[in-house]
Hints:
29% of the residues lie in helices and 0% in strands. The protein is mainly α. It has one domain (10-58). The longest helix has 9 residues, at 27-35.
Amino acid sequence: xxxxxxxxxxxGIFDFKDNKINLANPPAYLIAQKIGLTNYELVSSDxxxxxxxxxxxxxxxxxxxx
Length: 66
């Protein structure tokens, strides 16, 4: 998949008769896949708390605070 894919038929993601949306395929993930995003998964802060700052830097993970 490449970045900037066509959004033609993106409405099909929300066709509940097709049952594409479920816990393994939340709408945000399906949309990200459809448009070709490659880095879209959420990593929980609980998971990241297992790593120190150096390990996170090695994995190219940055923390965004709100």
